[in-house]
Model the fold of this input.
Amino acid sequence: MRIDILTLLPELLESPLNYSILKRAKEKGLLEIYIHNIRDYARNKHKQADDYAFGGGAGMVMMIEPIDLCISKLTGERQYDEILYLTPDGERFTQRMANYLVTKKNILMLCGHYKGVDQRVRDHFITREVSIGDYVLSGGEIAALVITDCTGRLIPGVLSDETSALMDSFQDNLLAPPVYTRPANYKGWKVPDILLSGHQLQVDEWRHQQSLERTRKLRPDMLQEGSEKPEEE
Ligand code: 6GU
Done:
């Protein structure tokens, strides 16, 4: 899978993509991430990539030309399955959307900034607008990291234990069960006996019950949604 990220702040993205699971995914050749500085495509002498809004008002707007030049260069080299615009007014990102994105070969993400991007970019280049939640970030970069991390770890072969992504909270629309490790007794705080019993079937059943109970108590909304179904094409 290949992910291209267009941003005005490339430095913000670099370090988080070079640790842990994503780092390993890249080293294994399962994930390629390319960060593009939109400013590099600005043709005016100050390398300006934003400008005042027509009609007035505070705040700058990301200009269409540098974004067009960057996107057009990339789409001239390969076909993109989705061109995402990251913005707080987009469709909410979910595990379900990550499960959909991971089936794709090439994804392009444009990080929004300031007051946003010239509407013509949204009208003519973007296939999907995505938000990571109902709160406002200072730019789309952190959202791009969230989506890249969440999607990248789902690529087959990225997680060492292939079943572990399937065990995650949300993947089956249930929260994960509690987990414990040694010591079995810490200051009198004991690990549930069942986990030490060696009866795998009963352990699995106990975990499932715990998942259900936790979900009912903490996220009852998850039990009545259809979000476990895969996203349509
Ligand atoms: Cl994608 N961008 C910004 N700026 N804020 C957000 C967001 C995206 N998703 C939630 N808040």
User: Anything to note?
Assistant: Residues 2-152 form a domain with the Alpha/beta knot fold (CATH 3.40.1280.10). Helices lie at 10-14, 20-27, 64-77, 95-101, 119-124, 141-152, 200-218. The mean pLDDT is 94.
